[in-house]
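Running this now, will post back.
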Amino acid sequence: MSDPDFPPVTELVPHRGRMVLIERVLAHERKATACSLAIDAQELFRQDDGSVAIWVGVEYMAQCVAAHAGLIARAAGLEPRVGYLVSSRRLRFHASRFDPGQRLHISAAQLWGGDEGLVAFQCRIEDARSGALLVEGRLNCYLPEAS
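Update: finished.
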């Protein structure tokens, strides 16, 4: 699928309002999804100087995972479900913050698990302009069975 073929992120993630932090889906396959966002568009976690603390990247990666699950659900004719971030492993922060004016690419590649239950994703956040790796790590998530 190409970028214009993806539905708005608000139709894919269970978040609402200012808590929807990612802006759009860039690419999607059965086991991987890529999303993007602009730091200048962030409201909720922006500091006075326009930057965002690097730890917020964990939520950016989790929302990319949620968009991935939403696209899988949508393909099966289901509504997006609430999932849970259970743990993270090998998180590495390669910057101290996200800078004003920065555009981020976030990727989530499924390592193991299925469409429900415990699922693990290898995630990365890169600067869209330079390609510099900013955050990486594994997120373990729980997606309950559809009711």
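The beta strands are 24-29, 32-38, 52-53, 84-93, 97-98, 103-112, 117-127, 133-143. More later if anyone needs it.
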